[in-house]
């Protein structure tokens, strides 16, 4: 699909300087721009590339004044970065604007869906599934019985949503994610053998939640595992049964959260963090990558290490950690000196 400079400027409320009819069909970095591509300049340190880029169209701030001749057509806007982001969003909407039901698929007679629905080949919709409007479900997706999915949701290829799960509006679930698998519930007997504890709850994703590829969110033993609105999960994260994550918290890849832990709002959790079960983490907490959290955490704490310490204390302690061999040698030499006396 091609767009002219005039069409793009109209979408971004921008002003064209150059050829208004030049067309583009792809996006590029400014330093890698090719003919037929669209790029942008927002960071001043990349300014030199605008004079050599082969991109057909470049989005720039209104105050940009070229100091050399340009081969690229400019679209001047108030904020080049925000405008390019808006264009990416529009591009994704166009790219994902599929509709209709491909074959083969299975749709239970009791399932229902709204207008603008797309269902990719080899997908399965179970009994009593309820799907809103403009939902896009890509190939090889499994939707279990009694699942509810709100408007404008995207479920990418190969994702699995187990029975009873509830997915709010504008959520995005990426490939390989599993929503609603059983929690890790087993009880030992006197022989040390394990019996399964039935997991009878569900998973609730409120609106505008993103779930990364390969991430797993377990159903509750009783009640619900809940991700509040605006939560963002990276790839390959494990959320255990009965966990609750507060609004607009973001969690990086390979983090694991054990059962029944409650995490507050607006938290930022780095990659490979391990969080034990049955604790409470407050609002606006920052946890650095590879930390281990084994206690309750108050609002606004910043933590690092395993077990995690206050971030400032960790950095002060690290100065001593890395000097331990020298300190040991110093103490050994002092002991020898004292013994010699």
From TrEMBL:
It comes from the Bacteria. One of its GO terms (molecular function) is N-acyltransferase activity. InterPro entries: Hexapep (IPR001451), LpxD (IPR007691), Trimer_LpxA-like_sf (IPR011004), UDP_GlcNAc_AcTrfase_non-rep (IPR020573). CDD domains: LbH_LpxD. GO terms for biological process: lipid A biosynthetic process. Pathway: Bacterial outer membrane biogenesis; LPS lipid A biosynthesis. Pfam families: Hexapep, LpxD. It catalyses: a UDP-3-O-[(3R)-3-hydroxyacyl]-alpha-D-glucosamine + a (3R)-hydroxyacyl-[ACP] = a UDP-2-N,3-O-bis[(3R)-3-hydroxyacyl]-alpha-D-glucosamine + holo-[ACP] + H(+). The keyword Lipid biosynthesis applies. The keyword Cell membrane does not apply. Belongs to the transferase hexapeptide repeat family. LpxD subfamily. Homotrimer. Catalyzes the N-acylation of UDP-3-O-acylglucosamine using 3-hydroxyacyl-ACP as the acyl donor. Is involved in the biosynthesis of lipid A, a phosphorylated glycolipid that anchors the lipopolysaccharide to the outer membrane of the cell. PANTHER family: UDP-3-O-ACYLGLUCOSAMINE N-ACYLTRANSFERASE (PTHR43378), UDP-3-O-ACYLGLUCOSAMINE N-ACYLTRANSFERASE 1, MITOCHONDRIAL-RELATED (PTHR43378:SF2). This is UDP-3-O-acylglucosamine N-acyltransferase.
